[in-house]
Amino acid sequence: MSNVLIKITQSVDFKMKDRIPYINAVVLMGLFTFLFLGAEYLYVDVLSRMVSEDKTVLAQNYALGVSAAGFLLYPLLHRFCKNRLKAVCSAVISFASVLCIVLICMGTAYTATFIAGLVLLLLLGLFGGAVFYVSMRMMKTDRFLARTVGTSYALGILLQFANNNLVRSEIVGAIILSAFLLLLVWLLIKNDRIYCENGGHKVEAPQDEKKSEGNTEETAKGATVGILMILLVVLMTFIFSTLDSAVTLVHANGTVDIGQWPRILLALSGLAAGFVFDIKNRKYMGLVMYCVMVLSTICIVVLKLAGPFLVGLIVFYLSAGFFAVFFTSGFMELSRHMKTPELWAGMGRAVNNITAAFIANLVLTLLSSGSSIAVIVLVLFLFVAVSIVAAAYTFQKKAFMEKLITDAADAVSEKEKLRKFSEVFSFTERETEVFGCLVNTEDSVQAIAESLYVSRRTLERYISAIYEKTGVKSRVGLLNLYNK
User: Fold this and answer.
1) How many CA atoms lie within 13 A of 251 on its CB side?
2) How do residues 243-260 score in pLDDT, each as one tens digit?
């Protein structure tokens, strides 16, 4: 009876402990998505009443570009500000952000509002870098990474939808944004202390020249994968921004009023993307995203040939949600294996923002020119370029993961070896325990189940998950992989 109670208690405790970091990550990333979209919406709304549409769009593009700089500056803040100093800096930055929101809301002069918006988006970029890095560290492994990102994205979109439809006063909206910003900063400081300052592991220094050479090769392969991922997101952003602009132009011409309801579709597509991408531990994420990109390319061609607008609208919101989850989770997954994870964790949002800012005017000019042939040729060229880069990225990522497995197998200590295998294959804490028993003992499945205080059926589920993540089909295969 006592053994049964121990099994139940440990199982419940483990499940709760396992879920809390994911819930915290959803809240953090969801709040940031809401704040970023809400701040951008407030900024554009106020400026649109002060200057022409062209100047407003230009200011929005500048703000997006500056926000990308904030993401890229976060690693410096993270490296040079430690413990209490980091909390003080966060408090000062949050106060400055609230002040910028107030200045934007006042809208007294164009120059003051323009500068306040740029500063606000820059500071939100800093917070964004922190949010994605802390969220990545909280989750410890990449298990359920995409669905966590997708759920947080849906949460942020729904919060913005509710705010835009329920709040009619800009002053009230500014107060809500400020309150949520302070909440985000408090949660960020709290989780950073728990999961990053005290929960991080120390990477052992190279033990010999061979180890150092291996690390250099691993770093080079990681950099190659990262550069290809950046290029892939840049090219995809061209395609999705073109589709976005095509839909927006039809709405702006008054032909069709898309209203607010498609935001719900955007939230649902982000949520669906998370669950679809996580199938087989994100094994098919790249393929699914490529299919969505093909569908979007076809949709742009159809729209330029006077095809049905409703189809284009649905495809746009479907693809936007999938793309946001793809580049966010893709870079968060990659950051775990990079030399500067605090830089790469938020790289997806930074690359997307700065690319969208730079190409917005070009795309609008091209679409407004009335030359359907030019648009179709450009989109098809981008499609071919994406296909080539996607193939190169897939190949290099596979080589990079194989290198990580080899380095993990060459680890000096058994503890470090298990830790590295756990990181490479995104094992949960319990899966790591089971994996260790499978490769370091000759115990039977029943004996392992008894030693871990779980039922045989539960243990078999863990073993199946381990086989699926590692791509092997037997315990012998695990041994060969572990001793590679």
Assistant:
1) 14
2) 777 766 665 554 554 556
